[in-house]
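Give me structure tokens for this 210-residue protein.
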Amino acid sequence: MKNVSLLCLRIVAVLSCLALCACATTYTVAIDSLSEGEASGSCFLAPDPAMGVAGDDLLFREVSGLVAPALAARGMPVVASREEAAQEILLRYGMGEPTTTLRQWTYPDYETVFYHGRAITVRVERTEWTEHTSYHARLVLSARRLEDGQPGRQVWRTEMKVSGAVDDLRKLLSMGIPALQQVLGRQTSGKCRFEVSEDSDGEVSVSSME
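Here you go.
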């Protein structure tokens, strides 16, 4: 009876974990931002020269499209030309090295042993290991005031790192945008950490981990 009960509990636990995993996917987001005064005014997005890509690069245009709503929500609408903008924002993005961790799970179980021809049930502890790989996407936005159409001094800089179980730059960055919008262009005095959850219907929620 003990064996059956324990087996049922283990099955329920596994099914519960699977159900939770099916319901929501979580991502962790870390954002560090520096600012000199209030960030505001229209902006022109340009690729950071360190990336070596042109302004019409397809991936740059897609990442710019992800960032634009967050900028607009912070009072910094994106315009099509530098001449129309109050500030220029250099945009840099990419994937970091993935990290793999081993997690140990110890649970009680029962085992049947034979002693002098008799079957005896004994309690044992079993240990299982699971391997989890996390992928990391980074995004850096660096803003300078435009003076007579030329970049002046830097007025704010925001860096975001998004980590999750998917090896997909665009997906990871898109999951970080709701958190980015909360602190973009502000002074954070250190890293702000968030957890972003996406349910099976595509609904996204953000919670602070501070």
